[in-house]
Description:
The protein is mostly helical. Helix content is about 85%, strand content about 0%. The chain has one domain (about 35-155).
Amino acid sequence: xxxxxxxxxxxxxxxxxxxxxxxxxxxxxxxxxxxxxxxxxxxxxxxxxxxxxxxxxxxxxxxxxxxxxxxxxxxxxxxxxxxxxxxxxxxxxxxxxxxxxxxxxxxxxxxxxxxxxxxxxxxxxxxxxxxxxxxxxxxxxxxxxxxxxxxxxxxxx
Length: 157
């Protein structure tokens, strides 16, 4: 066996090792992507649970939330800002989840439940007034346009 033969065998082994390394990296990237997707969804679910949990622990916040759904326009400035923080938080969570869906970090079927949730949160005339007065311009343009479309679809139904 000549030096040239040994060199050829070395190149063959190096090529096989390179292919094995690329396969390993592809598997690791796929697993990392799956983990990232799961974490994005878990984080969104946790945030929604925390948001809803505040009402169990704080009946005054629940009363403000429920009153604001219909009577936002008659609130004092303090009440309007309190209501704003309650509502803006849930819509920021939903907006973040929608962004994850756009990037395929969460499944489409999971993302599809977000639109009915937006419509549920903005079901009352007070909530719609809040959206127009205090919130619409504070969200990304595509999200605001989507929420507007959902509100109009809800109104037309």
